[in-house]
Amino acid sequence: MHDVGDSTQVQPEALQVRHQGYRLQVLSGELRGREIEVQTDRVVIGKSRQCDVVLPDESVSRQHVEIKREGDTYRVIDRGSTNGSFIGNARITDAFLKPGDVLGVGKVQLRFLPRDARAEILPSDQERFGEVLGRSLAMRKIFGVLERVAPTEVTILLEGETGTGKDLVARAVHQASARATGPFVVVDCGAVAPELIEGELFGREEGGETRPGAFELADGGTVFLDEIGELPKDLQPKLLRVIENHRLRRVGGTEELTVDIRVIAATDRQLRDQVESGDFREDLYFRLAVVNPVLPPLRERREDIPVLIEHFSRRLPPGMWKAPGPEAMARLVGYEWPGNVRELRNVVERSAYLSPDGVIDLIATGRRSSGPGDPVEFDPTLTFREQKERAIELFEEAYLQWLLQRAEGNISRAAREADMDRKYLHKLLRRYGIEAKQFGRSSASRRSGSPSGAD
After folding, report:
1. Which residues contact residue 6 at a Cβ distance below 8 angstroms, ignoring those fewer than 6 apart?
2. Which residues lie below 8 Å from residue 412, measured CB to CB, with a gap of 6+?
3. Which of 117, 240, 261, 325 is buried most deeply by CB count within 10 Å?
4. Residue 442: left if φ>0, alpha if ψ -120 to 50, beta else—which one?
5. 128 vs 177, 211, 400, CA distance in Å?
């Protein structure tokens, strides 16, 4: 931003996304609550009935402000109004609007909401983005967006089920950006106790000691906020201020610090539903979801399964695995993969160690087991130690499923019942590709009629 007298000239973001029209949501004034759809390339907003958008308010000039489309951006120009035009708290004469911006027209506030905030970008012709693989159209569409936005400073919200690779995508975006040589700091908002998360993010000063938080540690790099939907509501406005101003104050501290960071967030929840229910701030959602790729579950990109199997297999020691035959591959491709790519990776790795001949298959990893009561089967080709490790793995996986079923998918409750650290429980669930929400109440009827494995 460049100050010009009492006005501000705002430069367009490096990312320019094409929108199919937009909505103006009236946040204050006589028309509060109304949404105005705009599909033309130019509108004039003011009090006069000759304007395209009429705002009947004394603080609004007859022809107050103009919004016009310029290529892939929307530009807002004040038309010499008496009471001024604003984006956030900054008075503007000429600016570019971003998704979620609040435009002040006199004392009336309008939120700028593109009808489709996703970039209209062609699918990539590449079958990978960093360490993320996929030849399916669904993934190449994601790659097309990531290739466009990674080099910019735009904030990204990654959505998708557990195990779809959101953390890997975030790291790949960081590596493809100008910040690649800077730190990449991860905060799992769901694995930190609510009373500790503020210090984890913003740092803490206590007893003469200073402990920097994630934003300080990531200075010059990227902060990845995993499970952002778990962030306590009282911390959400503080996070919003850091994203907007790049300034923070440590818990217990008085000094304000400036940090140079880019934020990437991720969630396996429907964050928009949380906004509607009031559990997540709408202004923070729009600041995070400037670009909002939704990673598809593995069952919706089955053509990628053979590619991923080969990729994970190549990481194993030579001679430890054999490619699946036609029947085994049919089982692997036909399986629903509730744990997504993470579960597939675990199956590949366990097949190498548990299968007598190293053939990758669902059968070798116990995925056909019907429940925790099944007897343990022994393999005469394995040593005592290998048999024991296999038995422990089968027990842990069955126990976790039983525990989550009792707790109806509530991880906090499951951790209490097992007298287990919540963070460690998260780690175990990830290891076995188990998704907690499949055990929720809403999934009970669906689970009762579904097989636990693939035949």
Report:
1. 91
2. 422
3. 261
4. alpha
5. 16, 38, 33
Residue with tokens 């460690």: 424
pLDDT tens digits for 80-101?
999 999 987 789 999 998 887 8
* Six token digits for residue 40: 């033309």
Single-letter amino acid code for the residue at 103: L
pTM higher than 0.70 = no
Q: Is 28 exposed, middle or buried (0-12, 13-18, 19+ CB in 10 A)?
A: middle
Tracing tokens 């130019």 back to the chain, one arrives at: 42
Q: Could you write out the DSSP letters of every residue in 360-414? A: --SGGGTTT---TTSPPPP-TTS-HHHHHHHHHHHHHHHHHHHHHHHTTT-HHHH
Residue listed under structure tokens 């010059």: 220
SS3 239: helix
Cβ atoms of 293 and 285 within 8 Å: the answer is: no
- Listing DSSP states for 33-81 in one string gives T-EEEE-SSEEEEESSTTSSEE---TTS-TT-EEEEEETTEEEEEE-S-
CB 323 within 8 A of CB 358: no
